[in-house]
Amino acid sequence: MSRATVVPVIRELARCYQAFERASDAHIRRMGLTPPQFDIVATLGNTPGMAFKELGSRTLITKGTLTGVVDRLAARGLVERAASPDDGRSTIVRLTAEGERVFREVFEPHLAFLAPAVESLPECGRKDLEKRLRQLREALEKRSDELARQ
Amino acid sequence: MSRATVVPVIRELARCYQAFERASDAHIRRMGLTPPQFDIVATLGNTPGMAFKELGSRTLITKGTLTGVVDRLAARGLVERAASPDDGRSTIVRLTAEGERVFREVFEPHLAFLAPAVESLPECGRKDLEKRLRQLREALEKRSDELARQ
DNA sequence: TATTGTTATACTCTATAACTATA
DNA sequence: TATAGTTATAGAGTATAACAATA
Q1: What is the pTM of this model?
Q2: Which nucleotides of D are covered by protein (CB under 7 A)?
Q3: Contact B60 A18 (CB under 8 A)
Q4: Closest Cα to residue A36, out of A81, A66, A15?
Q5: pLDDT 10s per residue in chain A (150 long)?
Q6: Distance (Å, rounded) from C-alpha A118 to C-alpha A127?
Q7: Whole-angstrom Cα distance, residue B104 to residue A19?
Q8: For chain B, what is the radius of gyration of the CA atoms?
Q9: CA of A99: how far to CAs of A26, A57, A77, A102, A104, in Å?
Q10: What residues of A are in contact with residue B128 (Cβ under 8 Å)?
Q11: How far is A50 from chain B (nearest CA, A)?
């Protein structure tokens, strides 16, 4: 019974996310960013900046990779590094004025682009979906923990 | 109102998929495959093989990339190319005996690994989730079409 | 002319591990 | 010793476009 139960849910999750990703990535690339770059700009938007460590844990980008992605964004003038006042080992990453501009220019229109799809679900359907996705996520996180513990 | 509606659903979708991906990728890598490679092996499993074109459309890997991924799997002896009997331009990709073995060794255990997470949802919750995800996916696919048409 | 798959280019991301400087 | 970030390495995936063979 396990297989017949698991496959449909996982397949719909993957297909739905891929549909989101495809719509989203195409829109993001038209605005001249890669998906990880957008992820970082979106994470830094409306914040005073944050340490590499926190940025990495929020975006799920590992530290070695993050240095490279941040380098490329910095080279384009969208983010900048600053020394942490609290910890001499730590570096803060934050949006530049240009980065803020891109954030505003890119993030809200991106939501507006996605909105018609989300709003096509009935109100109760959205709430359901959020709740079920949260439950499944928590259960999946437990599986990751199990695996890591082996 | 649009932003407050859209963000939570999209965030839960992304977080849930990322939790899946993280659990799944770690498990797949332990078995010596990359995620796109697993995707191909899983797609070819229990089929007589299929043309590049179909394989690409099922896995969402574009043709230029697919040649490279298939090359690496072929170099490891997991898949092989064969001329299409129907169309001289077309190439069939199929699992080798070794590829079939890896499929069996990898796919079912992978489902078994994920099963506890999915089965932690109540029966009705799984059905709900599948239905809502399907609705959202269809709406997102329409957004992609809109974008492509511009 | 259109389509299938390959090749070529250039780049981004990825995992991993060694390294530095601070704590 | 442990942690934060950088550097180095090697490889995998990506977009894109030009190309050969076939339809």
Answers
A1: 0.87
A2: 3-9, 12-18, 21-23
A3: yes
A4: A66
A5: 577 888 899 999 999 998 888 888 888 888 889 999 999 999 999 999 999 999 999 999 999 999 999 999 999 999 999 999 999 999 999 999 999 999 998 888 888 888 999 999 998 989 999 999 999 999 998 888 887 777
A6: 11
A7: 28
A8: 18
A9: 20, 21, 7, 5, 9
A10: 128, 132
A11: 20
Nucleotides of C strand lying within 7 Å of any protein CB atom: 3-9, 12-18, 21-23
B22 chain-A contacts, CB cut-off 8 A: 60, 140, 144
Paired tokens of B29: 């890598």
CB contact (8 A) between residue A18 and residue B117 = no
Residue B55, C-beta contacts closer than 8 angstroms, at least 6 positions apart: B40, B43, B44, B61, B66, B70, B93
A31: three-class secondary structure by DSSP: coil
- According to DSSP, residue A120 is labeled T
Running DSSP on this structure, what letter comes out for residue A33? -
Q: How far apart are CA B113 and CA A131, in angstroms?
A: 23
**Distance between CA B95 and CA B104 in Å, rounded?**
11
The closest nt to A54, taking CA to C1', is D4
Find residue A92's DSSP bridge partners. Answer: A51, A82
Please give the Cα distance from B128 to B29 (Å, whole number).
Answer: 31
Contact B147, A125 (CB under 8 A): no
Cβ atoms of A55 and A45 within 8 Å: the answer is no
